[in-house]
């Protein structure tokens, strides 16, 4: 079995509300960048939230390295090596950049090793080192996103799930975010990316997954998905030259 | 001049006690978003532990203080398990907990009244009625000791929150509950422990209160407004803010008591509560309410 994570026919929604996901499938292979695309309300973010334990899975199952994840809390799933960076970035606004990075390794028992990794990450991201003592809440959107993404590297996870890392950022900064993602992938981290901008997302991915109305419409190599006429028609606005 | 200094000192001494009384309330609000209306009645509970320790065995309230803290912390754990844990996922959690804690306050008040009657109580160790004189200025030792012990406990709490691993988890949960959960923090456990610490602090404050004020079960209704004014002025959930607010308002209340009239002293806290909510609802150290 080569799959790292498998999602089989899951149904999930918010509270007692209607099911947003209605039988979604997903196969995540190690070391690849997977991009989930689909129109608004397709259930892209919901899928990530269901995998990381924020939402209850009503039907179907999620397996990671063969182990069933259904019913585990987010903190338990994090300990398995699956990190989720939500759209809101999950930072602690009143903590310094360094403290935020340290929180990334909250589950680590070895404090010295944690300090070492925090330093390591700050070496890789000079902007974070420069602002080590600044409160995270006072940084720009791009810097906050950099911090949120860099923080995932502290525990050297298996999978990082990114929910629209480009949201609300200037094009130049968006490019930087994709560079960071590429850096993570190079480190051997498997990426699961949700991107509103399907074209841009697929360009940076190995594998594309198309979601609509809570179901997986189809999936395939990113280049193929990008060139698929149905996708061009449905999600990329038709005539656009890819 | 001496008179002014005297009032200032009395205000500060009282501020120390109020700071500890409010600290636990602020912690619980910060972590769990629960406005624990039962907090002051927990303080009364702690005061009774100290009172009976003193009355039956002559134990100094400062010695009973850790015992009161532990007993009340245990009450906190039970209360959390029975009352608050199940509701934690409800969308109307904040509204629910106001009613729940109100009910808990009524029940505990009733139980205390039935068990110990509504007689005014006070513990009277020697230092409670003593005073230190520096020139014309006198410092009541009871309030002085209470203030010092209170600051020591709050400093300990601050160090715990700032440097311990669990303290990190508490602060993280306070600032962003979802984010903490997504980084491996068991936020339910953090909530339970924080609630226990908060109620434990009420127990500790109760031991101090037992020789600073006279108390009876229904006394907590007066304190809830006072403590709310401290927590709101400090900025909901900011313990440092609560401490600063406690000293600030206690000193102002002392001056109001001296120059306007003793009956207006307590009113200072209530007026402050209204004024803060109108002028600066986020308090001294709180965040501006987000518009999102």
Automatic annotation (TrEMBL), chain A:
Task: Tell me where in this chain the ABC transporter domain is found.
Answer: 5-238
Assigned protein family: Belongs to the ABC transporter superfamily.
Return the Gene3D superfamilies for the record: P-loop containing nucleotide triphosphate hydrolases
Which Pfam families does the protein's record reference? ABC_tran
Official protein name in the record: ABC transporter ATP-binding protein
Keyword set, alphabetical order: Amino-acid transport, ATP-binding, Nucleotide-binding, Transport
What GO molecular function annotations does the UniProt record carry, in alphabetical order?
ATP binding; ATP hydrolysis activity; branched-chain amino acid transmembrane transporter activity
Q: Does the keyword RNA-binding apply?
A: no
Record keywords: Transport included?
Answer: yes
Family matches, as InterPro entries? AAA+_ATPase, ABC_transporter-like_ATP-bd, BCAA_Transport_ATP-bd_LivF, P-loop_NTPase
UniProtKB/TrEMBL annotation, chain B:
* GO molecular function annotations of the record: transmembrane transporter activity
Q: Where are the transmembrane segments?
A: 6-30, 37-57, 63-84, 96-117, 137-161, 182-211, 223-249, 256-279
Look up the signal peptide feature and give its range.
none
Its membrane topology is listed as: Multi-pass membrane protein
UniProt keyword annotations, A-Z: Amino-acid transport, Cell membrane, Membrane, Transmembrane, Transmembrane helix, Transport
| GO BP annotations listed | amino acid transport
Cellular component per GO? plasma membrane
Family (UniProt)? Belongs to the binding-protein-dependent transport system permease family. LivHM subfamily.
* Protein name (Swiss-Prot/TrEMBL): Branched-chain amino acid ABC transporter permease
Q: Which organism is it from?
A: Acuticoccus mangrovi
């Amino acid at each position: 079995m080569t799959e790292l994570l498998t999602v089989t026919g899951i149904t999930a929604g918010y509270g007692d509300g209607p099911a947003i996901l209605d039988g979604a499938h997903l196969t995540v292979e190690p070391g690849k960048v997977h991009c989930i695309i689909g129109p608004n309300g397709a259930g892209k973010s919901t899928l990530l939230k269901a995998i990381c334990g924020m939402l209850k899975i009503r039907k179907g199952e999620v397996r990671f390295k063969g182990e069933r994840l259904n019913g585990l809390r987010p903190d338990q799933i994090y300990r398995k090596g699956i990190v989720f960076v939500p759209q809101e970035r999950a930072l602690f606004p009143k903590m310094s950049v360094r403290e935020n990075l340290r929180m990334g390794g909250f589950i680590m028992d070895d404090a010295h090793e944690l300090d070492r990794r925090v330093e390591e990450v700050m070496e890789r991201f000079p902007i974070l080192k420069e602002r080590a003592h600044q409160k995270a809440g006072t940084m720009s959107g791009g810097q906050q996103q950099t911090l949120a993404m860099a923080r995932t590297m502290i525990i050297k996870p298996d999978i990082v799930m990114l929910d629209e890392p480009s949201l609300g950022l200037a094009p130049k900064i968006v490019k930087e975010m994709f560079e960071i993602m590429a850096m993570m992938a190079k480190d051997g981290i498997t990426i699961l990316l949700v991107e509103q901008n399907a074209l841009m997302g697929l360009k940076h991915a190995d594998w594309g997954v198309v979601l609509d109305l809570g179901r997986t419409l189809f999936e395939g190599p990113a280049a193929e998905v990008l060139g698929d006429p149905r996708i061009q028609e449905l999600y990329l606005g038709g005539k656009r030259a890819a | 001049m001496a008179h002014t200094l005297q009032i200032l000192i009395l205000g500060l001494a009282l501020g120390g006690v109020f700071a500890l009384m409010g600290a636990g309330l602020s912690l619980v609000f910060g972590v769990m978003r629960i406005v624990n209306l039962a907090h002051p009645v927990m303080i009364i509970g702690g005061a009774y532990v100290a009172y009976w320790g003193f009355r039956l065995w002559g134990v100094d309230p400062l010695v009973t203080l850790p015992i009161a803290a532990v007993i009340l912390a245990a009450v906190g754990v039970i209360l959390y398990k029975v009352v608050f844990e199940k509701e934690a996922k409800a969308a109307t959690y904040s509204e629910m907990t106001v009613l729940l804690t109100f009910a808990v306050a009524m029940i505990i008040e009733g139980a205390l009244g039935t068990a110990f009657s509504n007689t005014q109580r006070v513990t009277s160790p020697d230092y409670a009625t003593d005073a230190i004189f520096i020139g014309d200025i006198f410092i009541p030792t009871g309030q002085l000791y209470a203030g010092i012990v209170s600051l020591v406990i709050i400093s300990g709490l601050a160090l715990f929150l700032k440097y311990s691993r669990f303290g990190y988890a508490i602060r993280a949960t306070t600032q962003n509950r979802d984010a903490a959960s997504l980084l491996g923090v068991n936020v339910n456990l953090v909530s339970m422990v924080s609630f226990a610490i908060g109620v434990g602090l009420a127990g500790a404050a109760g031991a101090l209160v037992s020789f600073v004020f006279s108390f009876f079960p229904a006394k907590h209704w007066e304190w809830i407004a006072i403590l709310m004014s401290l927590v709101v002025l400090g900025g909901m959930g900011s313990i440092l803010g609560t401490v600063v607010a406690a000293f600030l308002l206690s000193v102002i209340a002392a001056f109001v008591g001296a120059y306007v009239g003793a009956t207006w002293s307590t009113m200072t806290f209530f007026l402050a509560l209204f004024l803060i909510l109108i002028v600066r609802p986020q308090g001294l150290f709180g965040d501006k309410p987000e518009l999102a």
